[in-house]
Amino acid sequence: MLLDFRTKNFKSFQDELVFSMTPAPKQKGLDYSLLKEKIGAKEYKGLSSAVIYGPNASGKTNIIGAMDILKQIMLRGHIRNEDKKSRSNPAAGALELIPNKADKQKTPVDFAIKFTDSGFLFDYRLSLDLGSFLEEDYDRKVLTEALYINEKMIFSRNPSLELGDTNIIRKYAINGFEENEKSVRNLAKKNLIDDELFLMNGFKAMFSSKLVGIITDWLENRFMVFCRADALQARPSTSKKDTLYVNTTVNDAARIFGINSNGLGFLSSDEDSEPKLYSILDKKGIVQADTFESYGTIRFVNMFPVVIDALLSGGTLVIDEFDASLHPMAIMSIVNIFHNDDLNKKNAQLIFNTHNPIFLNSNLFRRDEIKFVERDEETFRSTHYSLSDFGTSGEKAVRMGGDYMKNYFVSQYGAIKDVDFTSVFEQLLESRGEL
Length: 435
Description:
The N and C termini lie far apart (59 Å). 24% of the residues lie in helices and 24% in strands. The strands form four sheets. The protein has a seven-stranded antiparallel sheet with strand order 2-1-6-7-8-9-10. Strands 11-16-17-5-18-19 form a six-stranded mixed sheet, sandwiched between helices. It has two domains: 1-228 and 320-435, Rossmann fold (3-Layer(aba) Sandwich), CATH 3.40.50; 233-296, no CATH class. Helix 3 crosses helix 4. With 435 residues, it is an alpha+beta fold. It comes from Paenibacillus borealis. InterPro entries: ATPase_AAA_core (IPR003959), P-loop_NTPase (IPR027417).
């Protein structure tokens, strides 16, 4: 489970962003929907969900984008541009899009992520010299890099390499490591490459491919980050020509969602083509869903299998505008499933941003699960904070059972903007002589 994510000098977040999925201290009466995992003698607690609020262009999507970029950098093991561009998050492949565009000092871009998996607590930190915004040909460098496992330093690069106590990795070390540990340490220190991660290259090859495998497996299969709502497209993993794939669980959920007259399935007309979603019209045959179903229906069918995967695998599901085109009652039900200890047995988490105030509800989310992002009108810098950062007394108090939605709209918590297009239309009509 994700415990903590941090970044600095990333797009609009020039100051450090700390996105915490650990329970805030001193939150009395909020012991529900907490995830717990024991590692050694210590128990770690995590939030099962988080919802992010803020006006348009405040930086909400940048939080999700930063998570996705760190994931992609770690998986490919270097900070060179990727030839394959991502439509949902171009900065994941073109790293010159990452630095804050107002920064002229080539300030480093920092990332850090802390998560648990397979009985380990992983804490990985990375600081990158990416140059300035849009400086495509800059000679990029890894400035610092560190890995902590179960709160013990495994290695630290700053810029030379320091290796910690390797006792924690001996059980998972590569063959021959113990007999050659001294020479392996010396070799590792002499073979750092400026634009490559030591974790995914030297450490993996010379120390423990098994531990790196646990990290990459979590990143690939359980850190499920979607930077755009329309990037969610569920497809069967295999396909055969003229074979209709029907997912019974998804169809059952779709009927509860409101699709009662027909079923849904995936069909490939060619063994090499990508299966397409079809509506099954009983004896009348099938028709492509995008010509028959509403956009909300298609969004639901593409989204629900990902929710299932997260719950069954204990994944951390992070989605931009998760509720786009979906009824809020459907989203509330899914949130409640993540909060249900009897159903969420593997510590799955759901993180999403939204503009819908209906989720500002003390009966649905804990105070530390409600996050805000606002952007300064003069500096254009984004800041992030949680509802739990407010006190429980005073003018801006946040009390148990309070009317969060009402207070948000009177700007008690910030992260809201007055929007009035009247002047635009007045000027337009005046220019036409109609006012």
